[in-house]
Amino acid sequence: MKPLAFLLLALTAHAADAPWKWQSALVPDAGIDLDAAQIVRVTSLRTKGDGTFRDALKIKGPKLIVFEVGGVIDLDMQPISLDEPDCFVAGQTAPAPGITFIRGGLRLRGDRVVLQHLRVRPGDAGQPKKSGWDPDGISTSGGPQDVWIDHCSSTWAIDEAISASTYKSPTGEPVRRVFIRDCIIGPGLDNATHSKGPHAKGTLVFGGTQHVAIVGNLYTSNVERNPVFQPGTSGVVVNNVIANPGQRAIHAHSADAELGKEGANPRIAVVGNVVLFGEKTKKTAGVLEGTADAYVKDNEGYDWLGQPIRELREPLTSTVLPQPPVWPEGLKPVSTTAALWHVARFAGARPAERDEIDTRIVREALTGAAKIIDSQEEVGGYPRHEPTTRKLDVPDKDRRAWLEKLAREVTFGADVPQKQ
User: Cys staple from 157: which of 8, 44, 137, 369, with CB 3.0 to 4.6 Å?
Assistant: First the structure.
């Protein structure tokens, strides 16, 4: 075996065997040495050129990307790919109103990537219905390991809002250890520009992707995939609030409907989630439906009239397990009441200073006013924020503590004491 191939095989084996650990810290540790990482400053809101986010991603080697500008970055229908490993994107460093990407999405392809406190709002970009413009908001591609999508808001996607997908993995290994934590996921755009027609989707766990933790998120006004696990995948769905689903809430299946192929059942744990029907939610829906090897516990759901719904939709096709088939070390579920409060207060980007779009989305999701929409123009259109700037004094040491301080300010508020 050639030396390079041997090294690649060794690294792949190491990544596959790495432990799957939950972290509750405001700044998760994905294995990046932040004190040794290069500081890359985003100073421009343009889509391309010097000082832009797209330009920052071209820097080789471990990097901490910080923002000395706040406002809207128009991707001009050209998605951004994060291809390099060891990349920490710290949206909490931006001055208010923070960073919002429009008319495009983010593709995560590198190992050990962290996204925090970003808003991604692709929208229909003014394109005709069924024209083939079908961006995800945030998605993995290839076979990255150890990805954190944390405190992000992904709305108005044409395909999925946030997905964990293995697609054309260069090593042949699936994506492993994806954490989708404290995000706002939806509403998607339904009868919009996707080539297949109506297509408002939340999260797709696809292609054999392993160990996906979907925890503490608000799913709202997606017709389905809130989330969905496809054949051969594994993960946990814990303490999410799923408001105004159309066809279904949490879903799993063992057959590829498009390719006609059978696969191993998804292995999932579904614990402590809350489903709140909208006026037009399919009446037979439950908290979980489909086929999986599933551990199901302490989930609640209510229909439009406030009546409880089933945890498992009949006919029962899942194998219900007495213990979780997979579980990240250190994850401790909370009650459904605590999950509701947590999502109301802390889901999405910069929750202590939510923009008017996220503020409306959370309010409507939790009061029964949420609707499935076909265009961002139905709810005021793309955001328009005046650009803001500030110089950052990034320390040479203890950068994690510095990032945690900024994350605390945009999560809890600048006046909240460091310890509660």
Answer: 137
